[in-house]
């Protein structure tokens, strides 16, 4: 129970259905005051109180589990090291994978519980992960990294409802979080300034910003970790491209600390290589090319594609070009609204 409306209604639904439910809030920081406040995160002091009040209204036991050390190692340190390596991680996806459905699930099973239930907007039918009926709130993408074993011990009670229906139900049940704003920001970056957060941990690392078309050095940056593929704002080049069009980050090379920029058209890719493929859907690893669709960012576009596994790598050929494909993000494969599997993007061309 994060302290938000979704997990509160999820808990209420499964308790009403007759399950033996215990509410658990995760303490993810040794100093919760350093995390976001004002209902912007999911692990602040306010969130603890909101979660406890919701459990009291539902009438279920409530505990706080200290996961701060594990969260710091598996999510925060991973976030920093991924940026240092020129990749763009998704910390919410990593939290689902390493904390909620690994650390928490392991402890829950050891204590005799059967499953971990969350307020994610996704459906789970006969062990198969599907998109939520609310496309605007669908979170199957950030759950696409879970294994079949993890999904076998998961419950997502909200997948058949829209967010508006969940809020209305929360109000009917007397849950004070009915109108609480959704969290959108990275919970462990208190002021939302990702670049400053990384600079504090990685230090200043000046390097060149290079034009991909001419090879000209256009400017200097304080750290390549402050950029991501597809970024347009914040380049601070001081002069436009010859054609007057904006430049975008095309690549980040941590070895030389070089950020390469160019026109939007140079961002287009049709081929993606992803590592660590996971097949968690109704089919096993395909022996040949698989016609399906792929989502490359949370709430991003969906592209028709053909996917195959070669030498342990997932190779994806898109039916049309995609832009802003960043190494470190997940590529989640779908058959309609059914999740087939996923991989972590290594490169794109």
From TrEMBL:
Q: Which Gene3D superfamilies does the entry mention?
A: Adenine nucleotide alpha hydrolases-like domains (2.30.30.280), HUPs (3.40.50.620), Translation factors (2.40.30.10)
Reaction(s) catalysed by this chain's protein: S-sulfanyl-L-cysteinyl-[protein] + uridine(34) in tRNA + AH2 + ATP = 2-thiouridine(34) in tRNA + L-cysteinyl-[protein] + A + AMP + diphosphate + H(+)
Query: Biological process (GO) annotations?
Result: methylation; tRNA wobble position uridine thiolation
One cellular-component annotation, GO: cytoplasm
Annotated EC: 2.8.1.13
Record domain tRNA-specific 2-thiouridylase MnmA-like central: where? 196-262
Q: Which SUPFAM superfamilies match?
A: Adenine nucleotide alpha hydrolases-like (SSF52402)
Q: Where is this site: Interaction with tRNA?
A: 120, 329
**Where does the chain cross the membrane?**
none
Q: Which Pfam families match?
A: tRNA_Me_trans, tRNA_Me_trans_C, tRNA_Me_trans_M
Domain tRNA-specific 2-thiouridylase MnmA-like C-terminal, chain residue ranges per copy = 270-345
- Any GO MF annotation of the entry: tRNA-uridine 2-sulfurtransferase activity
The active-site annotation reads 95, 187
The segment annotated Interaction with tRNA runs over 137-139
Record keywords, A-Z: ATP-binding, Cytoplasm, Disulfide bond, Methyltransferase, Nucleotide-binding, RNA-binding, Transferase, tRNA processing, tRNA-binding
Q: Which residues bind ATP?
A: 26, 119
Subcellular localization is given as:
Cytoplasm
Sequence similarity:
Belongs to the MnmA/TRMU family.
Q: What does this protein do?
A: Catalyzes the 2-thiolation of uridine at the wobble position (U34) of tRNA, leading to the formation of s(2)U34.
- Protein name stated in the entry: tRNA-specific 2-thiouridylase MnmA
Can you name the source organism? Thermopolyspora flexuosa
């Amino acid at each position: 129970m994060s302290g938000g409306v979704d997990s509160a209604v999820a808990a209420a639904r499964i308790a009403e259905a007759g399950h033996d439910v215990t509410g658990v809030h995760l303490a993810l920081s040794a100093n919760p005051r350093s995390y976001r406040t004002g209902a912007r995160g999911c692990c602040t002091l306010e969130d603890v109180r909101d979660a406890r009040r919701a459990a009291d209204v539902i009438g279920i036991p409530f505990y706080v589990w200290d996961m701060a050390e594990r969260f710091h190692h598996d999510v925060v340190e991973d976030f920093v090291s991924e940026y240092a390596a020129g990749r763009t991680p998704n910390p919410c996806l990593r939290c689902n994978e390493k904390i909620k459905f690994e650390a928490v699930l392991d402890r829950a099973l050891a204590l005799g519980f059967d499953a971990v239930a969350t307020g994610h907007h996704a459906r789970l039918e006969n062990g198969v992960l599907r998109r939520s009926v609310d496309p605007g709130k669908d979170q199957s993408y950030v759950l696409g990294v879970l294994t079949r074993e993890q999904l076998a011990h998961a419950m997502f009670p909200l997948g058949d409802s829209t967010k508006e229906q969940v809020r209305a139900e929360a109000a009917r049940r007397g849950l004070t979080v009915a109108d609480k704003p959704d969290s959108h920001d990275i919970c462990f970056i208190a002021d939302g300034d990702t670049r400053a957060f990384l600079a504090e941990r990685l230090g200043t690392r000046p390097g060149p910003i290079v034009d991909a078309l001419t090879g000209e050095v256009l400017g200097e940056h304080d750290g390549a970790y402050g950029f991501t593929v597809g970024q347009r704002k914040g380049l601070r080049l001081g002069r436009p491209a010859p054609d007057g069009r904006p430049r975008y980050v095309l690549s980040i090379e941590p070895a030389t600390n070089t950020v390469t920029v160019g026109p939007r058209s140079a961002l287009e890719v049709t081929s993606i290589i992803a590592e660590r493929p996971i097949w968690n859907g109704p089919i096993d690893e395909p022996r040949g090319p698989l016609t399906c669709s792929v989502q490359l960012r949370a709430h991003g576009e969906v592209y028709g594609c053909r996917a195959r596994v070669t030498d342990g790598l997932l190779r994806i050929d898109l039916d049309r070009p995609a832009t802003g494909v960043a190494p470190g993000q997940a590529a989640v494969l779908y058959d309609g609204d059914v999740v087939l599997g996923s991989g972590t993007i290594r490169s794109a061309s």
